[in-house]
Amino acid sequence: MANFSGQVVLITGASSGIGEALAREFARRGAALVLAARRTDRLDRLVAELAAAGARAVAVRCDVTVDGEPERAAAAARERFGRLDVVVANAGFGVVGPFALLALDDYRRQFETNVFGVLRTIKATLADVRRARGRIAVIGSVSGHIATPGSSPYAMSKFAVRALAEALGHELARSGVSVTLVSPGYVASEIRRVDNAGVLREETPEPVPRFLLMSTTRAARQIVRAIGRRRREVVVTAHGKAAVFFQRHAPWLTSAVIRKFGVRSRGEPGR
């Protein structure tokens, strides 16, 4: 098990889902944490929980769509802990719907968080990670490998960060910095209850069958292990691994299945 004792980890989107579980898993492995998100009430509760268990953690309000806010989170890491070793660009949500019914602003909103938010986060922290010869993790998706009907904004954003992670991994290899692309399948989280404007619709039922959902705790263990081992990519969930495998080796087959069985993205919550 990779030990992160003495290392400082910054996680965006840490107030729920995978980000929250990653905070707990990194803390379990000895890391100090800078937890960044918009919902500071949730962050404060998480920091209190981690502190009660003996971990060091600080909460920072951060909206990755706003220039300068990821820099503020990075500054908090330097001020509180004196360094920054690992950055997890996790903040994101999903815009879904048929192409004909979506506006250009829907695509802009999706890219502002899922793509430019990742860019802002890495730009704000790269110098620190270089000094530490540390690690960068980008949370992508199986949708960054396979696009289904009704998923074009989300899939486009995840294809984009997959390309970023690949290019950046090559660029930073000689500096001792690793870049890990994380491609989850269906993990239990709030993402499928967030509408196209980024608003949580708590009353929306989970559209994915329970047997397909991996717990965030289990997903976080796999992700942190991959980051610790400096892996280039980790695909999380068995069905995610299968989907990516077939898309890579038999794309004609995945296309035929999608079209024959009418596979499509979930609908927008609240609609």
Subunit organisation of the chains: single chain
CATH homology-level superfamily: NAD(P)-binding Rossmann-like Domain
Helix content: 40-55%
Kindly state the mean pLDDT as a whole number? Answer: 96
Form type: globular
* Extended strand count: 7
Descriptive account of the structure:
- The chain is an alpha/beta fold and 271 residues long.
- It has a single domain, classed as Rossmann fold.
- It contains 9 helices and 7 strands, in the order E-H-E-H-E-H-E-H-H-E-H-E-H-E-H-H.
- The chain has helices at residues 17-28, 40-52, 69-81, 104-114, 116-132, 152-172, 216-228, 238-249, 251-260, and strands spanning 8-12, 32-37, 57-61, 86-89, 135-139, 178-184, 233-236.
- The chain has a 7-stranded parallel β-sheet with strand order 3-2-1-4-5-6-7, sandwiched between helices.
- The longest helix is centred in the middle third of the chain and has 21 residues, at 152-172.
- It is globular, with a radius of gyration of 18 Å.
- The model has no long low-confidence stretch (mean pLDDT 96).
